[in-house]
Sequence to fold (982 residues):
Amino acid sequence: MSALDAPIIVASNRGPVTFERDDSGELSPRRGSGGLVTALVGALQASRGLWVAAAMSEGDREVVARDGRGLVDMEAYGWPYRVRYLDIPPVTYDAYYNGILWFVHHYLWDTVRSPSFDDDTVRAWGEYVEVNRTFAQALAEEGDQQRSQPVFLIQDYHLSLVPRFLRELRPDALIAHFSHTSFAGATYMRTLPGTIREGIIRGLLGADVLGFHSQAWAENFMMSARPLQGVRADLARSRILVEGREVLVRIHPISIDVGPMREASASSEVRELRKNLNRWRGNTRLVVRVDRFELTKNIARGFRAFGLFLRRHPEWQERVRFLALLSPSRTEVPEYRAYAEECMAEADAVNREFGHQGWEPIEVRVKDDHAGAIAAYGLYDVLLVNPIYDGMNLVAMEGPVLNRRHGVLVLSRNAGAYWRLGRYALPVNPFDLGEMADGIATALDMPADERARRARGLSRLVLSNPPQRWVGAQLDDLERVRRRRVVVHVS
Amino acid sequence: MSALDAPIIVASNRGPVTFERDDSGELSPRRGSGGLVTALVGALQASRGLWVAAAMSEGDREVVARDGRGLVDMEAYGWPYRVRYLDIPPVTYDAYYNGILWFVHHYLWDTVRSPSFDDDTVRAWGEYVEVNRTFAQALAEEGDQQRSQPVFLIQDYHLSLVPRFLRELRPDALIAHFSHTSFAGATYMRTLPGTIREGIIRGLLGADVLGFHSQAWAENFMMSARPLQGVRADLARSRILVEGREVLVRIHPISIDVGPMREASASSEVRELRKNLNRWRGNTRLVVRVDRFELTKNIARGFRAFGLFLRRHPEWQERVRFLALLSPSRTEVPEYRAYAEECMAEADAVNREFGHQGWEPIEVRVKDDHAGAIAAYGLYDVLLVNPIYDGMNLVAMEGPVLNRRHGVLVLSRNAGAYWRLGRYALPVNPFDLGEMADGIATALDMPADERARRARGLSRLVLSNPPQRWVGAQLDDLERVRRRRVVVHVS
Fold:
């Protein structure tokens, strides 16, 4: 039996479905979207596997209350896999999720002033450790119930410690961990208290395979691990030796699930939205951005760069509009509210400087609007994706497969997506207003055949990498680990 | 002839002396202090060498005006070496000195908001390139006038491009560059526009030997160079292959010139100051910090940490005082003024929370006061050196050689000095208020024999590494390069 047919156990903070009460008062599952869920659920269904996640909704908590263990057989809903919810107190959940890790991996500190670690940090870290331990214990329990050696696929920075805790409970387990965020460099990781930094790195090193979306993040991880006692990082062969074990460090860029997006794009709702958007744009060109209102997304600099573009290229005034579709994010955090206000002020400043009756350069729409985004993807001439740091960035993939105008992707070199799509995008430094302004101009002035060539290239790259391949590559890695272990045992 | 006897040509932004008009109206040189000047002047004198620097004072500019070339034979003042001043316009000087490089190497950006590179950046970079080219041309000219192959010792981040420009003019030159600042990691270096980042790295790679104060900065440089086309970075052997040349990357921590400091400490002025300070402290213990009012020095967090220490360890209230001796720095820059105000507000907050008549926990003295610092070094029980990032930090060396109370050094792990002195200091994470607070408590509670052991260790490490050794190590490296080249030519 190979790792590929083994029963798979997935762990992630957010599960593949969320239970909510429907109109009849019954608890029913709402399925999450995106490539990650599609890929992992596909693999789970093939092996009748299990997905362990934190309870998110009140409905999820009711599911836990029902049998104590939180186990749901999704067979009842037509899907041959199971989900187990862990009842983690919301406060804990918030402390570890919105806590320090997101900030450090995305270089978000204002180092002269933040971070300042204190007792609250110690408490948040303690809770993070607890949550990770809870996950590891649940995974070990579920692993024990499988007839054959299970395969664990642990997701993201919320669960960095799970590989190590799980390894302690099941030394023979086959464990992969995947980081969906960027990973900070060695010096920047040292902003963290030593216990936390070393805890996270040694936590991850409990895995057999560590996955990242781009080489930059993989290298940063290896350089952070390198100085730790008893760790040998072999950069050339992309592996780490620790405690007599070998940990493979691998780059597997995830992609998106194109099918449902194309279906949505063909729906009457989106067709109507596209019609409205086309009326609204008139005969101007269209620059689009689609993002959560998130510190990492570089929204304010995007508006300033657009202003600089209009200043440097006055011939484009009145002939182009910038549509920003922004969904609210972490509005309970003061830093996020302040940032959202700054972004709106930047857009206003550009509109005041260049706009006049009949032409407002920037329009910002703040709401959760999936259909609106799908419609805008169809119509952009330029898609601006300029995060300061981003593990991957799926907007850079969604746009090109739905766009109908051979629109140009202006892409930050600090998005993981750049590693895969860079050669067909116009790359920009997200801190360089001049380069972003010129990127927009170059995109708008690009000859049609060059635009077409790049648009086709982007679309091809996305389509040639279905989400199943991402999970398959990780299972292949684990299979290689399993075979090597057998050899070692035999010899 | 070995590199050690070759005529040495030093280049640095600031020269070893500054010319000022004395009371009689004559231009006369004022010698700079510190280990760097001592070490390099020592080496220059041995070889009757030359130091090339930017004119700083009006007096320096007059020297340049006198003969156009700006050459001064210091023999006239009793020192057997020469200085050549380059007349660089002050505006240019400011743009490249206070510009972006200091910020990037010390991780000072508030990445969500700064930097935002634009036309001003392009202009500042252009001026930086010009200044570096001016230096390289002057160095090549001077080199051509030497009878034998000269040795160039280029100093610091102001002159990152000089090695390459000089190499183009003198392909056979023996060139060492030393970075006195920290060096940013590969991902953080990518905040810079590509031209600037690559320009700096390739500029440095023009040297034969690149020196850093600590392994962290050397590794960061190598990882930043690694992805560049045509560059092969060999981390294990700490060298880089580029354009058929080998560049050695070396760690040579500089030290201080102890003699003059001990003399100053024994002067009647400092004796008097010590007496006053002793009266002022009464029977309390004394925590001291000595710093420029600089964003990197972490002064505000130091005060907050002291507040946390008093909260966690109320038994120390009224029994300890914190004396901060801060010299003004870059007061023309708004960010620096704002930071200075924030620091004063933090000190005030601690004094309001804990102070009362007869006991004010923190005293801040803001002025240039070398004698006052020497006096305070003699008397501290705890010396707090907690920069967020610092190439080396000489306060961490000056204190221990002058202290008379077996005072304890609480030292940031992000100071280059930590690499050399760490084992005898109490190491702290400069972002961790809790660890700094506990560091102060541990230092104050430390048994006398343990304090003595550490104080002796620190003093011994500093004394065993005179500044001459720092320059000697670099000349040894260059001698090795020279010998290898000869072998290559013969074979």
